[in-house]
Amino acid sequence: MDRNPMDRRSFVEKLIALLLVPLGGAAALFRNAAAADTEYNPAGHYYGMGIQIDKCIGCGRCVEACKDENEVPREPFFFRTWVERYSINSNNEATVQNLDERLATGRQQGIEAEQVRSFFVPKLCNQCDNPPCVQVCPVSATFKTVDGIILVDNERCLGCRYCIQACPYGARYLHPVRKTADKCTFCYHRIAKGLSPACVEVCPSQARIFGDLRTKASVLTRFRRMNKLHRLKPSLNTEPKVFYSNLDGEVR
Question: DSSP secondary structure string, 114-139?
């Protein structure tokens, strides 16, 4: 992935052009997405996702469905969601590997020791209640909707990569064609129509659970009530709305 900083002059020119335009591009994007269903009221919802680690089989169908649904580039290093395989050896050391072999990474200490267990961990944008990506965006291209989802206004985004660097979960990338930041949106265009995100819909083991955090009858509310849950990197106080059950202490 190209990580070279954008040309300074180009950055300044785009910034000035955006500052000359009245704010509201982000709000317009939100209204257009919500308008996908005239009955949809964003103020009446607040969304989150639950992931059951013990049910994930590492099939990768969620990754493929996400790419197809959201036109994510097919190259293996562009993801809105991905799945990591954790292997724990007899020394209680972890090796972490993306399911795409071309992205094999991890902590390799003790790799020759006997493997005692392994499991899969789906990852995605954590849709934080206190999102650092929103805080660092110089033109408000990244914003939080009233129903709790972090979106990116492609018309305002400068491609400066500040939000990509600020995300502690590695959940953003720069789209190679649009040259703007891209990330998981919980398939906002689908949920505005009353549908589930594509990754949730295709999961054969129902490892992913999507729902409304403010509705007592929501499947996600029941999931939170009946399980001991963890969130990634809680010490950062980003307040993620992606909750994991049966999460191993080795997961970061």
Answer: PEEEEEEEEEE----SS-HHHHH-TT
pLDDT digit string (tens) for 87-105? 988 888 889 999 875 554 4
Burial of 114 (0-12, 13-18, 19+ CB in 10 A): exposed
Nearest residue to 135 (alpha-carbon basis) of 124, 127, 143, 147: 143
The tokens of 58 are what?
A: 């590492």
Q: How far is CA 148 from CA 95, 130, 152, in A?
A: 33, 10, 13
For the stretch 107-135, pLDDT in tens is 444 455 688 889 999 999 999 999 999 99
Residue 30 has pLDDT above 80, yes or no: no
Ramachandran sector of residue 134 (left: φ over 0; alpha: ψ -120 to 50; beta: rest): alpha
- The answer to whether residues 43 and 147 touch, using CB atoms and an 8 Å cutoff, is yes
Beta bridge partners of 96: 86
pLDDT band at 222 (very low <50, low <70, confident <90, very high): very high
Which residue's structure tokens are 């509705």?
215
pTM of the model: 0.83
Q: Which domains does the chain have, with CATH numbers?
A: 8-245 (3.30.70.20)
